[in-house]
Amino acid sequence: MITRNPSDNARQAEVIATSRELPHNAELEKSVLAVLLDGRHAVAIQKARQVVPHPLAFFQRDHRIIYQVCLELDDQGQRVDAQAVAELLSRYDFRSVLEKLRQAQMLLDVDQLDALGKDKLRALLRREVMADAAAFEDSALAAIGGFSAVADLVAIFAPAAGLDRNIALLWDYYQKRRLIARLSAISDKAYRTPDSFDKLVDEAGQAVVEIGKGSQSNQIHPIGSVVDATLDKIQYDQQNPNLGVKTGINDLDRKLMSLRPGGLYVLAARPGAGKTSLALNIVGHIAGHADNNGTVLFFSLEVDRIDLVKKLLSAEAGINFAALETGILEPHQQELLAGAAQSFKNWRLDLMDVSDLNVGTLRSIVRRRQLETNDGIKLVVIDYLQLLNGTRPDMNEYEKVSEISRVLKVLARDLRIPVMALSQMSRDSEKGQSDQPREPRLSDLRGSGTIEQDADAVMFIHHLKSDNQQAENECRKMKVIIAKNRFGPTGFTLMNFFPAKMRFSEAPPED
User: I want to staple 333 with a disulfide (CB 3.0 to 4.6 A). Which of 246, 329, 415, 454 is the partner?
Assistant: First the structure.
């Protein structure tokens, strides 16, 4: 009968500071090992290691040791069975086996590192190695109870058909223990550090996402399984063609294949070119669509929420923005305004206007809002990227924009939502003839080349005539240029812009 070393529970209790026993299932662990040690199922170890890549997923120490030896035998190309495991354990010094497990703990158990810090964890593990090894001077096999302990596992009735389910459950218990450790560490920090609430919430959100993604080792997949998953995804997309978030601009949606979950989209323009208005037109289409099943989250770092809603009302009601600014409205305009305002109350749109916001806090807010909303977030818009602060005040502009770009990309991928970041352009982009501004290019993005690298698509608003050639109430011809598109063609979409009413519409293609 395999016994659990009491020091395992002692260590876990010290790390997590809880009197409750951590989630595990000893019988489940034995069932998995029984199939592996049986020796009649050659593919069993391959199945197991794809889901459980390291021994730390086992809760009991002796089970970890046996699984570690199973992995080593498989690495050496040897048959995995009870006899081979017992023979290898008999050749191992128990102290060295424990040291291997502790090294794995240092490399893989990042939750313990977060809780204690690297130096404290190393010292704690070394004390345990010495304490355990002092009790057993014999081989590793003798330390776990001899060959009879291995034989007891083989004697357990564990059908091979249940292995897939059991290893999945085993990994699930391990993930729960990781989650408890991470959140307990964050709870402890809330007691003893001056870190802000938002910072702690952000850490908790990151912990949940990281643990949910599983071990990095577990992300290695044979090409055969990836091909099968890819074909399944293609078939699913064929049956569900409208998975992306549509902008409402048909030609743009065709080229971008809509705004894909997990994608980072950059919309850049010169000052006053209408990037906020175009973003609001897209937001209005999504938030006001009858089939919308998620919330749009709009961060405005330049325009306050009252002016944002005025822009939305102007576009929705078709009323000149100047009339809303002055409050001088005709009776029919009052009716249009009331109708638009009433429809807004059904929109699933959250606005946040704040002029001093760092990207870490923004990430925390998005993650928290994702959990709070019933259907999650449909789209995140940031107006605009260069006004966000970095997480450190000593960053230069290049470092700051690089960090912001990367954080937004990771946020989009982790939460599987599209993120649209509005961006300024550099002053070099204004060079050109006064009557015909040159078309923008990727190098015109202001602040950092990493914006171009991280973005899945980069779009520019380009007016076909200079602004001083066009009256405020005129329809302005313009292009939305797709300069980068990771998932489709580049090109442009012709648009009409009515600046007086903050409204965009798709223009017919030119001959």
Answer: 329
Q: What pTM, to 2 d.p., does this model score? A: 0.61
Contact assessment for residue 222 and residue 384, using Cβ atoms and an 8 Å cutoff:
no
Q: Residue 29 carries which DSSP code?
A: H
Peptide bond preceding 384: is omega within 30 degrees of 0, i.e. cis?
yes
Q: Are 311 and 324 in contact (CB under 8 A)?
A: no
Residue with tokens 């002029």: 355
User: What residues form DSSP beta bridges with 482?
Assistant: 459, 491
Q: Which domain holds residue 332?
A: 242-506
Tell me how many helices (H) and strands (E) the chain has.
21, 11
For 324-367, write each residue's pLDDT tens digit: 777 777 888 788 888 878 888 888 888 888 888 888 888 888 88
Under 8 Å between Cβ of 142 and 136: yes
Nearest alpha-carbon partner for 70 in 106, 41, 93: 41
C-alpha span between 443 and 426 (Å, rounded): 8
- Examine the fold and report which residue of 169, 185, 201 is the final residue of a domain before the chain moves on: 185
- The whole-number pLDDT of residue 4 equals 43
Cα–Cα distance, 205 to 210 (Å, whole number)? 9
Instruction: Note whether 289 and 278 are within 8 A (CB).
Output: no
424 close to 271: Cβ distance less than 8 angstroms: yes
Largest distance between two CA atoms of the chain = 95
Asked if the structure places residue 195 within a domain, the reply is no
pLDDT tens digits, one per residue of 99-132: 666 655 544 444 444 444 445 444 544 444 444 5
Instruction: Look at residues 378, 393, 382 and name the one whose alpha carbon lies nearest to residue 423.
Output: 382
On whether residue 200 sits in a domain, the answer given is: no
- The total domain count for the chain is 2
Q: Are residues 380 and 501 in the same domain?
A: yes
CATH code, 166: 1.10.860.10
